[in-house]
Automatic annotation (TrEMBL):
This is Protein kinase domain containing protein. The chain crosses the membrane at residues 545-571. InterPro entries: Kinase-like_dom_sf, Prot_kinase_dom, Ser-Thr/Tyr_kinase_cat_dom, Ser/Thr_kinase_AS, TKL_Ser/Thr_kinase. Keywords: Kinase, Membrane, Transferase, Transmembrane, Transmembrane helix.
Amino acid sequence: MYLKNKKIECHVGCSSSCIANYTCSSCGIGYDQDYSCDHCQLINTYKPFSSNNPLYVMQHDICTSISHYIVKSTWLPDNRNSIHINEPIELIFNSETYYDYGPCITRKEKQNRYRIGHWLELNLLEFPDSVNYMQVQLKYKTITQGKKVNVYYDISDSEPSTSNPYCYARGFLISTNESTSLQVPIHFDRMDSSKSNKYFIYIYEEEYAELTVEILITEQIGKIGNPFFTIDQKMADEMITTGQSKTVIFPMSSEGRQAYPACLPGTIMRVIRFSIWYEGDFSIVVSTKHENRIRYMQEFKETLNGTNECVQFWNGQSHGVLYDSGTNDGVLVRIDGNENGNEERLFSFISNEQELDISATFTAICPNNCNEKFGYGKCSTIDMKCKCNDKYGGDDCHSLCYYDGKFTNGSGEGQCHYGEPGCNSYCQCEPGYTLNGYYCVSDSCKNNNRNDITIECVQGDEGCRTDCICESSSFKFSPTLKQCVPILCGNNQIDDINLNGIFLRKEECDGGINCDETCHCLLGYIQDESNPLRCIENSNSISTIIGITISAIIIFVVLLCCGGILLYFLLRTTKFDINIYLQQQPNYYLYLSGSKKKPPTIENKYVIEPLSLDFGNENTLTAVLDTRFEKIDIRNKSGNKYMMVIFHTPNNPKFVFHFEPQVVLLRPRGFKTITCFMTLFCTTKIKDMKIPYTVWFSKSKSTLQEISEVLKNKTFEYWDENCQFKMNKLCKNVILHYHYFITIQTEAAGSTHIDMDELNIRENPIAEGAMGRVYIGEYRSSLGEYIRKSSKDFLILPYNLKLRMLYDTARGMSFLHENNILHLDLKPDNLLVNSLFADSACCIKITDFGTSRFTKKNNTNSGDKGLGTPIYVAPEAYRDEYTPAGDVYSFAITAWEIFYQDEPYKEFKSLFDIKQYVEEGKRLVIDETMPLLLKIMIESCWKQNPQDRLTFEEICWSLVKMIDDAPNHLNLDSAVDEEKIKDFVTSRQARVQSMLDEY
């Protein structure tokens, strides 16, 4: 719930007025004091709830105090209801239902786990030996008040005494359905009396609502399940005929089943089936590449004994050349048509991410199998089309009717030239075109429709063919003039203009003054006989020109006077509201996929000037609360493409940079002047700050407008698969994509408005004297304290938290390098821990810039000696050579230390031995426990040759893939005690509070 006023938006949890959108100085009771006031107060689940450790839960978007919760000493409460097979029971959810949390906690739920629910236990000994699966059925019965909400159920087979329960299965009943069912394998040892041999089930609501549900558990022999999606003969024929793909969202979260996949028989995973059943000489490609996530897919056959036989297995992870080229992760599988059309081929997607659905695209490709049996071509899965040999083409690699300037199957009567606009691979004009000679003429061409971007010229104009395309042998297309221009025009010579050997005219001029792009003299000018390259005024037209000029001046003066009078009255009646420029602008997602870092130049087809903004305060400081502005000129230098520029403004309560407009759309050769307004709210560092912008070029104006809508109000946190899917589709029409930045060149003046974020002080002073007030800073710790076993604060950190720490570090280092700053002493001791929870906004901040340097033109930095900590420095640093690649090497050693939580080179006796070891090209040992993606990144970062190492921008992209892959390595967290981590955080906070209370 949000409260709106004219200026800014504020969450209902704020106890004070907001200073920016969703940002206030203090939050109300029950809310986490993170200034957004959008989350409930964190709890210490390792300690009992009390007045000092209250439980607040979000109900109807408001944090509400909860007093009815389950008290338990382990993950499982003592009081549980029993459920028996084939006996349905009803569960009532209302205000008297107790709060608790189950064994399946996702990344999104770690800080928000308590829900109203019911605990059940199922004795597996009730099932006979012949039964190896069970069906869990859930359906709505009654709704007391309000709307239906999603109902989840978590299942675990862990023992009650364990500290880390295993999430065996998870399912949910979506509010738009009436019922659901989940297949769950039965796995237990009937003879092992030391185990409880029970499934523990927690059924709970996603959000509070009063309703009743029914749960029923039944026996199941063997695996069952119908395909969620099927491609049959009719659908396959339609796809290959129309060329249209089908994108299907597989609801893994609601329709998936727990099972032992046929191709991974030793692992319980989530599966969802589909089938392909067609006969034909073409292929169907199954792709999840647009998700850019690691996916698994299998083909299997059903057997009579109820088990399945593995046929093929695909791992959607990129390797080798594909990985190095930045190819998206995801399966890309080509399925050939059946020789026997009666055979149904069964497939399934496999995932251990139970809550994430899978988006897959099915595309029919390569008709006639590209005539591969005749040697005409081959079907390419990666390109998803036929790759034809010489003399063959079209979508199926048939023999071309027109090749190398000749018709191959006759005289060419009634045929067009293949390769020309509107002419298909059978030398026939496409629908909407009419044959004229050997060219296909569009309806727009016949009607002289200049708004059609495919039209280069108008029939009858010089150098224009009958299909409205410039004759390429003697003419070229000028996007500026929208007409054909002689190729010889512009060579500073007077030439004869010919077309197919026929003389057309002689150039009037070429490259001189008063000469246009077609080598004609401008109106009122004639060729200069003394210098034929230029044109001079025609004396007979001077009097006419003078008369026209005088008349134009008179008209201009009259219009100027009228405009001035109109403007005067408008200014008297219109009030200028400067408050509009004090508001934060919408956040546009900084989409850099496929983008190149290119400054504004003529060669790059765009100009933005100035790039450095001082807002008129080049030699003076900018006062706090003063709004200043500066004009920026933007030019589209492309002759045939629309250009869009998006300014990605920082959303920060310390200042506002307001671009008017924020999104600029220019036609070809277009020009626009915009204004950037700057307002500072406190004394903070803004000099040399970079404000990024992205530049997009496309021949479609609507494409650019749609891109801006997709990016609007999106952040890294809320960018999802649906957004990526839309961008993948839109970017097919994007020709050029750049990014660069504007630099701020002014500084903030001193004031009493202090930068609370940089100073990080508490709100209340601890003392006051003649010189002012005294504050105490917030307590922070370095990462080294937590990852070294010898430290009293040693904690075993989760793998996904380690990746998040590395990601935050890489982002910070990327920012430093972007601003030409080298750190030169990157190590865990110089990383401040901001949070020990991977889902926090920021986990790591980089500190200790005592050795930092600005990069110089000569990368050796010969004036600096002995910088950095020896065990983290790169080999070249021992020779006092300092480059950005040296920071990358230090990052690799830091990443190794964070992953293993062990001291690097601890077995070495001296720093000299380490130096010799590193200079010989040897590195720290990496064993098989480290995931492959992390190993590849670290080894790419500590290569001996600095030029071969990754950049921090590339490291960030690699870490994004690793974070997505983290759920596949849950075995790395077997020794992690998350409750201990939370308890440690709480004790640290209490320790700081007690220190403050002493004052």
